[in-house]
Amino acid sequence: MTLVIALDGPSGSGKSSTSRAVAARLGLDYLDTGAMYRAVTWAVLEAGADPHDPAAVARVAATISIEPGTDPLKPAISVDGVDVSEPIRSDAVNAAVSPVATVADVRTRMVGLQRSIIAASEGIVVEGRDIASTVAPDAQVKVYLVADPAARAARRAAEEGHADAEATKASLLARDRIDSSRETSPLVRADGAVEVDSTFLTLDEVVDRVVAMVP
Predict the structure, then answer these.
(1) Domain ranges across the chain
(2) Over the range 124-153, which residues count as b (16 or more CB within 10 Å of their CB) and which as e?
(3) Which of 17, 116, 143, 146 has the highest CB neighbour number within 10 Å of its CB?
(4) How much is the pLDDT for 80?
(5) Three-state SS string across 149-164, please?
(6) In terms of CATH architecture, what is 3-213?
(7) Other Cβ atoms within 10 Å of 9 Cβ, number
(8) Residue 115, exposed/middle/buried by CB under 10 A (0-12, 13-18, 19+)?
């Protein structure tokens, strides 16, 4: 049976750093599902479609091929063969990803792709917002990673080179509201998930806690 470690949580809680480090330490594959929604968003913007128009978003999503990499040391993702690892982190994509990610057709397609990647793996760490609740509810390890909003904002601002942590905090809280209230696969702490608060923990300490949960 494939070992699946599902790691959910809000933006800026440390999911990516933790997931990649856990996967690298245990020699497992790694899947960043958030990057997949960002890739769809990038494609929507490239097509000149309105990210707030669900029908337009769904049409773009239905025509593209997304291939996420699973190497935790060199995570990558492509759209129709084009590496978009860097473009999907742009301010434009940051601003548009939430409405795109709420479109039911997009989530249905991405969840199907995520499940196929999990099924093809011998062991994988999957990060996102609906992994333990929707994508892989039978995961052997379920973690819900949280952190104080101020700490999350400081981390994200540092990652993106922004000096305005307050603006970043407001953006993160707005994203939380959208992710938690959407009809399809909202951000929730799944049944059986262990909550880990990373506010006052180092990355190594968070990784140690997750690894200790592996049976």
Answers:
(1) 3-213
(2) bbbbbbbbbbbbbeebebbbbbbbebebbb
(3) 143
(4) 98
(5) HHHHHHHHHHHHCCCC
(6) 3-Layer(aba) Sandwich (3.40)
(7) 25
(8) middle
- Whether 36 shows a pLDDT value over 80: the answer reads yes
Work out the pLDDT band at 163, boundaries 50, 70, 90. Answer: low
Sign of CA dihedral 84, 166, 194, 25: positive
Q: What pLDDT, on a 0 to 100 scale, did the predictor assign at position 197?
A: 95
Q: Which amino acid is at 111?
A: V
Q: What is the pTM of this model?
A: 0.91
Q: Tell me, what DSSP letter sits at residue 193?
A: P
Residue 119 near residue 2, CB atoms below 8 Å: yes
Is the separation of the CB atoms in 156 and 10 below 8 Å? no
Partnered with residue 125 across adjacent β-strands are 5, 30
Please tell me the total number of residues recorded for the chain in this structure. 215
pLDDT band for 166, please (50, 70, 90 cuts): confident
pLDDT for the residue numbered 168: 81
Closest CA to 15 of 37, 35, 38, 39: 35
Sign of CA dihedral 33, 113, 48, 79: positive
**Adjacent-strand bridge partners of 196:** 145
